[in-house]
Here is the input.
Amino acid sequence: MCSAPLRLEGVVVATIKEQIDLIRAEIDKTQKNKATNAHIGKLKAKIAQLKIKEEKAHAHSKASGGGKGFEVKKSGDATVALVGFPSVGKSTLISKVTDAHSEAAGYAFTTLTCIPGVMEHRGAKIQILDLPGLIKGAAEGKGRGREILNVIRSADMVLYIVDPFQDAHFNVLHRELHNAGLRLNETRPPVFIKRTERGGIDVRTTVEQTHLTNEEMGEIIRSFGFTSAIVTLRNDTTAEQIVDCLAQNRIYEKAVIAINKIDIATEEELMHARSNLPEDWPVMRISAFKEIGLDELKDFIYDNLGFMRVFLKPQGQEADLEEPLIVKDDSTVEHICNKLHRDFVRKFRYARVKGPSAKFDWQRVGLDHLLKDGDLLTIVVKR
Here is the structure.
């Protein structure tokens, strides 16, 4: 499944990876300003199309026996992926906070496969995945990067482990995850593009657009193979947000950071390390080796995953106020049914809720009712 060669500045590039590398190099050397927004947007659209072709080719080669990946069965109430360069301390950390034992290769101090462990904390079972260290070029498949990134994409949260003595590490890793379609600590933008049969590119916006003109947006959308579409924008939209909407494969995920090795770093080095990280991201300090801050790290992971407690009251019985069900804070009645028994959704009649999400005590609700922390819930099923 080879795409047509790309011609840039007289050079013919054959492979998809080479095409992507060349386009990224052009983006890097292009000055970023209002005049180049549309040009960069079209280049990013080209990369997104090439990545889709690459994923299809990779899936085809896997189906033909051309590649060996690794699958991780999700378990527990949430999954957290540890992300960091080799030898940053991920394996030490997972052995201290979970029941997992990671096998490291002595020559490079790297984990050989994906090691899952379970951390039990405040009533929740949280699966922590110790992944092989990511390296530059992972998004293009280098160092088993594609398999590792697929596991990260399916997690509920990313926990970056940062070495305070390596300034560039975080930015390299973050770029790889961004290139792989992960949008960490970002909300999905209110951008909607619907292909139509005729009428050209019709842009409808509820706010003033300062990054791109309607014509520039049309150029980007047409470069993705659309001739006619209704484009609805409810924010001041960037070129990248349009490309993300067109690609339809972006993952919006939470991320937090732990700065490791604080037992051997000075306060000045730790402050310098913090200054290289995003200002508004949750960050804490630990020493996995000396077990400093690990109890606080468990709270840090739990709190940022966004859990809530739901108390169950079986029909005709007292509510269990001792052991609540620990679930994600965006859970509906349907989520609870799936968690309790695989037949509950099929046999569901209705549920009754008392607590913060109910308009009145024991309100009758359906499967799509969004629950809140502290709710009491009774589920009624067909006999």
Q: What stands out?
A: Residues 37-63 form the longest helix (27 residues). DSSP finds eleven helices and 19 strands in the chain. The chain has three domains: 6-63, 78-186+251-305, 307-381. The two ends are 53 Å apart (CA to CA).
